[in-house]
Amino acid sequence: MRIMATEVLKAEKLVKVFTGAARQQVLYDVSLSVDRGQFVTIMGKSGCGKSTLLYLLSTLDTDYEGKVTIMGREVTGLDEEELAKFRCEHIGFVFQFHYLLPEFTALENVMLPALKLGRWDRADVERRAMDKLRQMEMDGFARQPSGKLSGGQQQRVAIARALINEPDLILADEPTGNLDSANTEKVIGIFRELAQQGNTIIVVTHDRDLAERADRIVELADGKIVG
């Protein structure tokens, strides 16, 4: 059963420190709130902490101070099994590198998260996966091995995969970083359309054009929100 909330994500006073040969603080008391249907981009120079922040918000990194709440549930402090289940149900990921299985077809790659979730039978999962590929204008390539697709096509398949479980929150880390201008424009258009449909999207990017097409830009500098 889905939890309904206007505020999809809330981060409070996040502090991240890397320890090792030398202690390095990357985030300083970062607080952020994102509502349903918002398309938010996080920008800043390399090393400012934006990708680190995204990994904290995604629950993939749990070693931090502060609190993260998603869909009204505090996820800080949950064990790995609970977090894995929560991510599968509520969060979709798109990375700079698509991480598709090259020997699997586009359709099979999109189906994988839904098969893992186990909410629908296989026939329904395949139908849903085809719907997502159609939304990305990739249904004509559904039966092709993903390794045979172009970079832009693979990224659109990766977005379809992120959407298959109907997540409440879509997180993307430099999703256009390896794309040419034509495919970058397609991906930006997809994110805009998804936000207009009520999806909540947070994108880390260096691409100013992508950022300015969002509803809101969060600027980071030296581990702090500055704008």
Structure explained in plain terms:
This protein has 227 residues and is of the alpha/beta class. It has a domain at 40-48 and 77-225: Rossmann fold (3-Layer(aba) Sandwich), CATH 3.40.50. Helix content is 35%, strand content 26%. The protein is built from seven helices and ten strands. It has helices spanning 50-57, 80-90, 106-117, 122-135, 151-163, 181-196, 208-212, and strands spanning 7-18, 24-35, 39-43, 65-70, 73-74, 91-95, 169-173, 200-204, 216-221, 224-225. Strands 6-7-8-3-9-10 form a six-stranded mixed beta sheet. α4 (122-135) crosses α5. The longest helix is centred in the last third of the chain and has 16 residues, at 181-196.
By secondary-structure content and strand pairing, the structural class works out as alpha/beta
Low-pLDDT sequence parts: none
User: How many helices in DSSP terms?
Assistant: 7
General form = globular
CATH class category name of the domain at 40-48 and 77-225: Alpha Beta
Give the topology string: H per helix, E per strand: EEEHEEHEHHHEHEHEE
State the strand order across the main sheet.
6-7-8-3-9-10
Q: Please give the alpha-carbon distance between the first and last residues.
A: 36 Å
